[in-house]
C-alpha cells in the first residue's frame, strides 16, 4: 500500500474517536455563528434542536437534525429537511426533545411511538436513528418513560439512546454513574445530547476537566454536547469564546 501522506497524530493528543471515526465532542447551539468559535479538530458534530442548520457551521462538522415534537410546526418540513441533511452527510437523526417533560415536547410514550413510526422510522438504514432525548428525572420521567416508549415501539429502529443530565458541578460521580448505567441498561450507543453543571465558574471548569476525558474514554458514549454553545456558557455576550469554551475545546 502507499505510504501515508501525513504524519499520524500521536494518540494522546486527540479525544478517543467513536466507532464511526469522528470526534465525540459536539455543540448544542441556537445561533450558528457561535459554532465558529470551534473547529473540526475539536468538535465532530452539532445540533440546534431543529431540522435546519440556521446558518453555516465550521467545515467538517456533522449536523444532526432533530424532530423536536409531533406538532405540525416541527413535522411539516421534517421529511424534506431530514432528507436534505442526510444528502449533505448527516449521520444521525435525533428523536423528540424531552417528551417526558411537560414544558418540552410533552408526549406520552405511545404518542411518541406513533410519531416515530410516521416520521422517523422511514429513515431507517439511511442514518442512525437516535431515541427521544429523556431528562434525568425520576419515574414516570427519565428512563421509566424511555422503557415505556421502547415497549410501545418494539418494531422501531432505535440505533442509539439520547439522554440529558443536569446536576451540581460538584457531583461528578453522579454524572459518571448515571451515564455509565444508561449504556449498560440499554446496550446501545449513548448520545449525551445535553449535559450541564450548576455552580461557580471555577467549579464548572473543574467539572469539565474531569468529565471530558471520562466521556471520551467511555466506550458506550458515542457523542456528547455540553449545554450550550452560546452566551453565558461556552461563549461570551460579545461573541468571543469564554474561558469555559476554551476548556471545552482544548481538554483532552
Automatic annotation (TrEMBL):
SUPFAM superfamilies: (Trans)glycosidases. GO terms for cellular component: fungal-type cell wall. InterPro entries: ASL1 (IPR053183), Asl1_glyco_hydro_catalytic (IPR024655), GH (IPR017853). Residues 26-248 form the Asl1-like glycosyl hydrolase catalytic domain. One of its GO terms (biological process) is fungal-type cell wall polysaccharide metabolic process. Residues 1-25 are annotated as: Disordered. PANTHER family: ALKALI-SENSITIVE LINKAGE PROTEIN 1 (PTHR34154), ASL1-LIKE GLYCOSYL HYDROLASE CATALYTIC DOMAIN-CONTAINING PROTEIN (PTHR34154:SF10). This is Asl1-like glycosyl hydrolase catalytic domain-containing protein.
Amino acid at each position: 500500500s502507499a505510504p501515508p501522506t501525513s504524519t499520524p497524530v500521536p494518540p494522546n493528543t486527540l479525544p478517543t474517536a467513536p466507532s464511526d471515526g469522528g470526534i465525540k465532542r459536539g455543540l448544542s447551539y441556537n445561533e450558528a455563528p457561535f459554532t465558529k468559535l470551534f473547529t473540526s479538530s475539536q468538535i465532530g458534530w452539532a445540533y440546534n434542536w431543529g431540522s435546519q442548520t440556521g446558518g453555516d457551521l465550521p467545515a467538517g462538522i456533522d449536523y444532526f437534525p432533530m424532530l423536536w415534537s409531533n406538532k405540525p410546526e416541527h413535522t411539516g418540513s421534517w421529511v424534506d429537511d431530514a432528507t436534505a441533511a442526510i444528502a449533505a452527510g448527516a449521520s444521525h437523526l435525533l428523536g423528540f426533545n424531552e417528551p417526558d417533560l411537560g414544558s418540552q415536547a410533552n408526549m406520552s410514550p405511545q404518542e411518541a411511538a406513533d410519531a416515530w413510526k410516521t416520521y422517523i422510522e422511514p429513515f431507517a438504514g439511511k442514518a442512525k436513528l437516535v431515541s427521544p432525548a429523556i431528562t434525568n428525572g425520576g419515574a414516570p420521567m427519565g428512563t421509566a418513560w424511555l422503557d415505556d416508549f421502547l415497549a410501545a415501539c418494539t418494531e422501531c429502529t432505535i440505533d442509539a439512546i439520547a439522554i440529558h443530565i443536569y446536576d451540581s458541578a460538584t457531583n461528578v460521580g453522579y454524572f459518571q454513574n448515571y451515564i455509565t448505567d444508561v449504556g449498560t441498561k440499554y446496550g446501545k450507543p449513548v448520545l449525551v445530547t445535553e449535559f450541564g453543571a450548576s455552580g461557580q465558574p471555577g467549579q464548572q471548569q473543574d467539572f469539565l476537566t474531569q468529565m471530558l476525558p471520562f466521556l471520551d474514554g467511555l466506550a458506550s458514549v458515542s457523542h456528547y454536547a455540553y449545554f450550550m454553545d452560546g452566551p453565558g456558557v461556552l461563549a461570551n455576550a460579545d461573541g468571543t469564546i469564554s474561558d469555559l469554551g476554551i476548556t471545552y475545546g482544548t481538554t483532552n
